[in-house]
Amino acid sequence: MAVIVRDATEADFESLTKLDLAYNVGDRYLELERSGSGPELTYRMRWRTGTAREVVYATLTIEDLRDALHKHTDAFLVAELDGEIAGYEMIAKPRFTNAAEITDLAVHRPTRRSGAGRALIDAAFAWARERDLRAVWVEPRGDFAGAIDFYLSLGFRVSGLNDRWNTNTDDADGRQTVYMYVELG
Fold first, then answer.
1. For 78, phi and psi rounded to 5 degrees?
2. What is the CATH number of the domain that holds 155?
3. pTM of the full predicted structure?
4. Using CA atoms, how far apart are residues 18 and 85, in angstroms rounded to an integer?
5. What is d(CA 5, CA 135) in angstroms, rounded to the nearest whole number?
6. In total, how many domains does the chain have?
7. What pLDDT does 169 receive?
8. What's the half-sphere exposure (Cβ side, CA atoms, 13 Å) at 57?
9. From CA 96, how far away is CA 50, in angstroms rounded?
10. Within the chain, which residues score under 50 in pLDDT?
């Protein structure tokens, strides 16, 4: 069961729309605590206990995938497992930095723990190194402990938390965004 990572093409879109991208939000989440006032503020991130539930990461449409491939990403990769698409990753290189952001990473539920996610992350590292970028960052939700643990296991470090980012309609519960990065040495 070798995982192959390659550039996505429009021929992959139909398969991508059929991926099961639901995941279980565990019973723990990262939360930002503040203490003090004025300029003497102290911040601390803590794991809190929550309610386990299932969340759908994304609902992919052909139009959204076409826009991602041609307009919104610098790299759009797919992972194949035994000739079938097992996951995808989108990477952006903003002009304001010499680092890359993994904007989307998702693995088909039946193929999780197959190495597809790790292969996609390794491909992002290679992509960034080929462009002499210094780091790669990702921004998982604070309530997706599985993703946070996954990124930590691959060398990412928590570099911050934004408790005001996800307050729009795509994240109505307002869970924090966790900033994570890995330096490429």
1. -125, 150
2. 3.40.630.30
3. 0.85
4. 10
5. 20
6. 1
7. 45
8. 23
9. 36
10. 168-172
